[in-house]
Write a structure and sequence with these properties.
This protein has helices at 35-40, 69-74, 117-126, 148-158, 164-171, 176-188; strands spanning 4-9, 17-18, 20-21, 27-32, 51-56, 59-64, 78-84, 98-101, 105-106, 110-114, 131-133. The protein is α+β, with helices and mostly antiparallel strands.
């Protein structure tokens, strides 16, 4: 990919970005082609279990899955790393806004301190670059009970992401019976 790509992090001490095993079972370095997307990855929590970061009708969205999560994740400082995009590409298995590099290490070109991630996200929202849905507001395709996560996390586990279902049930213990039912249903069809 030509130009600059962005990597968002809550950490400001990264002299080198190192490849890590992803949910796609690939060792890589993630980035985004826009600052808006990179901002959303500065808040570290439980990933999809806390928020949904997606594109809905061509609009970048951040969906708060539980009350207070957005403030907990983003009402703090973060860092925006600019990287040379020449080793990054988009692949079909990725979300449309992500790019990855299979380099083992990449030295950032620049680092920008973001004093308050939430304020930066709100600024991007005012420019029309992001739409933030605070709980219980959400796009129509995301159920209020977050049950869309069940099949996703069962799939992660089946693909070798050990502990995915355990993490799901840690955050959403109310899914226990449904998860067991779906796991049993899947084992009966094999």
């Amino acid at each position: 990919m030509e130009g600059i790509v962005f990597h968002g992090s809550p950490r400001g001490d990264l002299e080198v970005l190192k490849a890590r095993e992803s949910t796609h079972q690939k060792k890589c370095i993630y980035a985004a082609d826009s600052k808006s997307v990179a901002l959303l990855f500065m808040g570290k929590g439980m990933g999809d279990l806390d928020t949904m970061i997606a594109t809905v009708n061509s609009q970048l969205v951040l969906v708060e899955r539980r009350p207070g999560v957005i403030d907990r994740l983003y009402n703090k400082e973060g860092y925006l790393y600019e990287l040379d995009g020449s080793t990054f590409d988009h692949y079909d298995f990725l979300w449309s806004k992500e790019v990855i590099s299979f380099e083992n290490e990449i030295v950032p070109l620049r680092k920008k301190h973001i004093s308050n991630i939430m304020q930066a996200i709100e600024e991007e929202e005012s420019l029309g670059n992001i739409r933030v849905f605070r709980y219980p507001d959400r796009p129509t395709n995301v159920p209020l009970d977050n049950s869309d996560l069940i099949d996703k996390y069962i799939s992660f586990e089946k693909k070798g992401l050990t502990g995915a279902v355990k993490n799901l049930l840690k955050v959403y213990p109310e899914f226990e019976e449904e998860v067991q039912r779906r796991l049993k249903e899947r084992s009966n069809t094999i």
